[in-house]
Design goal:
By secondary structure, this protein is an alpha/beta fold. Helices cover about 20% and strands about 10% of the residues. It has a three-stranded parallel beta sheet, with no helix packed on it. It has a three-stranded parallel beta sheet with strand order 4-5-6, with no helix packed on it. It has a two-stranded parallel ribbon with strand order 7-8. The radius of gyration is 23 Å and the shape is flat. The termini are far apart.
Length: about 230
């Protein structure tokens, strides 16, 4: 026969299990609802792009986390504050698009068009940029830490106060880029071509570079500590 203490303990345990089960089920239901909302958002934006109306509809704050937007024509689209984390933007046309404050963390951008796009204050940590065209794009204030750049010419891109710490920019031609108070701490600059005039952030103390890295004329590379070139993490 159960003692009063054992009965109380059993009741509390059963109640706790029941509460945790309800909370777990609610979390699962919320995730399913969020995913359903994202799929509906994807259907909506694909429909607008197919009808050539991407520049006439606001996509501000739209949640497209993990969705496939490859090949969509979103020129002049208003995606301010959009959530595009882990999204696939392969071949997506975002020329002249407004991506101010957008969440583009860990996105895949292969052959993506970003010419004259506005990405001020956007989040692009760990974004993978492969053969992206971005002439005229504005990344001022963007957080691009640990992003990976795999193309040859960045064109006249603006990187005013952009954080490129630990970014992989090896071999990229940034000759015509605007670099002012840009953070490049720990960045991989092997073979990179930096602009003739550049104002690096005071936090730029170490980076990975080699004999093929082209610095601005007269820049004292002695002030830069040659950091680790291991970017496997």
């Amino acid at each position: 026969m159960l003692t009063a203490r054992e009965a109380v303990v059993g009741f509390i345990s059963a109640t706790l299990v029941a509460v945790l089960t309800v909370i777990s089920q609610m979390a699962i239901d919320d995730r399913r609802e969020d995913e359903a909302d994202r799929r509906e958002n994807l259907r909506f934006i694909r429909e607008q792009a197919a009808d050539g109306k991407a520049d006439k509809v606001s996509f501000r704050g739209i949640d497209l986390t993990g969705q496939n937007l490859s090949g969509l024509d979103l020129r002049h689209g208003d995606l301010e504050g959009a959530i595009l984390k882990d999204a696939d933007l392969t071949g997506t046309d975002l020329r002249n698009a407004n991506l101010h404050g957008a969440d583009l963390r860990s996105t895949t951008m292969k052959l993506t068009h970003l010419e004259s796009a506005v990405l001020t204050d956007a989040m692009l940590q760990r974004a993978n940029l492969l053969d992206v065209t971005m002439d005229g794009a504005v990344f001022d204030g963007a957080d691009m830490r640990k992003s990976s750049w795999s193309f040859f010419n960045a064109g006249q891109v603006s990187l005013f106060e952009t954080d490129l710490s630990d970014a992989e920019i090896a071999g990229v031609d940034m000759t015509h880029a605007t670099i002012h108070e840009t953070k490049l701490l720990g960045a991989d600059l092997r073979g990179a071509q930096l602009p003739q005039e550049a104002n690096f952030s005071r936090y730029f103390l170490s980076a990975c570079f080699d004999e093929d890295t082209r610095w601005p004329p007269g820049y004292r590379t002695q002030a830069i500590i040659k950091g680790s070139c291991d970017y496997s993490g």
